[in-house]
Specification:
CATH topology of the largest domain: GMP Synthetase, Chain A, domain 3
Structural class: alpha+beta
Number of domains: 2
Helix content: 40-55%
Order of helices and strands: HHHHHEEHHEHH
CATH architecture of the largest domain: 2-Layer Sandwich
Strand order of the largest sheet: 1-2-3
Radius of gyration: 25 Å
Low-confidence stretches: none
Distance between the termini: 39 Å
Length: about 170
């Protein structure tokens, strides 16, 4: 049921909306001029091609063929880091396969490269953990005293330290 059906009045603000959805709506006209009917390929580039390739190439535009050649798929124009252009070119068939699997149809048929400078993606910092108190250390040791395998115990101990120090 909607708010109007329950109260008989229409809600004014519409509630919260995801910022990504709003950004996609704002950028949509700009992206369409570059051939990207959907911003998903840009937003999810790392997920589509994998982090190794995403670090060294970025999509610039999709060039769609004329109607007579529509079954060939679009041409994806990529900006590739100069030192990685040969590797990206070698991986082009794999990228095409991954992109088409993402869309669920043969959207891309070929890739064209342009060499240039690519800014590195920002990396997430690993969380910093505080030192455990003596009580937390004793509790963790008591939990792990029945584990006989030393490698497993060490791994579980590191996991336990991370869990205790984040709380």
């Amino acid at each position: 049921m909607t708010a109007k059906e329950v109260t008989g009045k229409r809600r004014r603000g519409g509630g919260f909306r995801a910022a990504g959805d709003e950004a996609a709506a704002i950028l949509s006209p700009v992206l369409k001029r570059r051939g990207f009917a959907h911003a998903d390929i840009l937003r999810r580039w790392t997920e589509i091609v994998g982090p190794a390739l995403a670090d060294h190439c970025r999509p610039e535009r999709l060039q769609w063929p004329r109607e007579a050649e529509a079954d060939k798929g679009a041409t994806l124009h990529l900006l590739a880091a100069s030192g990685w252009a040969i590797e990206v070119q070698h991986m082009a068939p794999l990228m095409i396969e991954r992109i088409n699997r993402f869309f669920g149809w043969r959207a891309v048929g070929q890739v064209k490269l342009r060499q240039g400078i690519i800014q590195p993606r920002p990396r997430k910092k690993a969380p910093e953990f505080r030192a455990l108190t003596t009580e937390e250390q004793a509790s963790l040791d008591k939990l792990l005293e029945t584990v006989s395998d030393p490698k497993l115990r060490a791994t579980l101990h590191r996991l336990g330290e991370a869990i205790y120090s984040r709380e």
